[in-house]
Specification:
It is a single chain. This protein is an alpha/beta fold. The chain is built from 12 helices and 11 strands. A 6-stranded parallel sheet has the order 8-7-6-9-10-11, with helices on both faces. α4 packs across α9. The N and C termini lie far apart (45 Å).
């Protein structure tokens, strides 16, 4: 029994899962711990109405376990809507491993994580995300079949990052068509924030189209490498959100559009690969709408990766992967127009379509 009054920010210590603002009726949260390998992980399964929960594993040095839990809840929820709006028969799940991927990731840790995934008997299927490589998924595959994104040499679809980047590029072009009347990005200024696997490939697409690309990242070595390779300009300012550019492409971690940044943004379009770009979907989505900024919903335009790994489950090839990914252009344009017609934020318009598909399947399942 609590005998003293607690501040609001302390309440999560009493009710750490169900009391989370990020908790959205998740079906299952699994905490994984293994002393021998040093594994500390959380698997979040948000919804399995449409099919097994599929989503990547992220390894990150979180400041605390509360931060890791919040991240896995937000990410797994986003995966449900990503699969639904893309028309895939998958649910939403995600996993986070707490630790430094550069110094603490070992084959033993990955195999032990795979054993935890296997214990869920296919309810959750993992893949790669931040801090993970295709080779890591190959290790997980040694102990469980419930993993995608394994090497092509082992029968998988390989690294999903290039397909993710292509989907973001398609969504960005659709947003440009809606905002500017043309989807040609030549001479358009684009800030790409975060140049990992996905960000770099997006830079390549933009450069090939003749866009003016500006890049920023916490890794100075990567900045110099990508700048040299594609001729991109390195951002040396202090506040990228206040830069007067055509497009802002967040491709690192989420929640970069928040109370501190949202009213600074001068870009006409936001279209990037990061998950959960809006720290508060309702508040920040409405502010962007009011400021006349076109926001291409992240869980829609970054769905190329899940399309790519879904191919391993459904056994379709590269041609179908590219067709489904290119269709992100049409869906994005449809949602932007729908949001305008119904005076909704673009995020809400996309969410309505995704939730509608989940609800329809749930009703169908209950009547059978």
């Amino acid at each position: 029994m609590v005998s003293e009054v607690l501040n609001t920010n302390e309440l999560h210590k009493i009710d750490p899962v169900f009391g989370q603002l990020s908790f959205d009726n998740h079906e299952q949260i699994v905490f994984c711990n293994d002393k021998d390998s040093g594994l500390k992980a959380i698997i979040g399964i948000h919804n399995t109405v449409l099919g097994p929960a599929l989503g990547g594993t992220r390894m990150w040095q979180y400041n605390n376990e509360w931060e890791a839990l919040n991240d896995v809840l937000r990410l797994s929820r986003g995966m449900s809507f990503k699969a639904a709006i893309t028309g895939l028969n998958l649910g939403g799940g995600k996993a986070v491993i707490i630790g430094d991927a550069k110094t603490q990731k070992t084959p033993e840790l990955m195999r032990r994580f795979g054993e935890f995934v296997h214990s869920l008997s296919g309810k959750y299927i993992t893949a790669e995300d931040v801090g993970m490589e295709t080779s890591d998924m190959d290790l997980v595959r040694e102990v469980t079949p419930y993993v995608t994104g394994i090497s092509e040499s082992k029968g998988g679809a390989g690294n999903p990052s290039p397909i993710t980047a292509y989907g973001v590029f398609m969504g960005m072009k659709a947003a440009a068509k809606y905002k500017f009347g043309t989807d040609v990005l030549e001479d358009r200024s684009v800030i790409v924030q975060g140049i990992g696997h996905v960000g770099e490939t997006l830079v390549e697409h933009l450069t090939n189209e003749g866009a003016k690309v500006i890049i920023t990242d916490i890794n100075e070595e990567r900045l110099n490498e990508v700048s040299s390779k594609y001729g991109a300009q390195i951002y040396r300012g202090n506040d990228i959100y206040s830069e007067d550019v055509d497009i802002y492409a967040p491709c690192a971690l989420g929640a970069t559009i928040n109370d501190q940044t949202v009213n600074k943004i001068r870009a006409k379009i936001i279209a990037g690969a990061a998950n959960n770009q809006l720290e508060n979907e309702n508040i920040h989505g409405k502010i962007l709408q009011g400021n006349g900024i076109v926001y291409a919903p992240d869980f829609l335009i970054n769905a190329g990766g899940i399309i790519n790994v879904y191919a391993e489950l459904e056994n379709y090839g590269k041609t179908e992967i590219m067709r489904k990914t290119e269709n992100i252009y049409n869906t994005t344009l449809e949602i932007l127009n729908n949001a305008d017609l119904n005076n909704l934020t673009t995020h809400q318009a996309a969410l309505n379509i995704a939730q509608g598909r989940i609800d329809a399947r749930k009703k169908e399942n209950s009547s059978n």
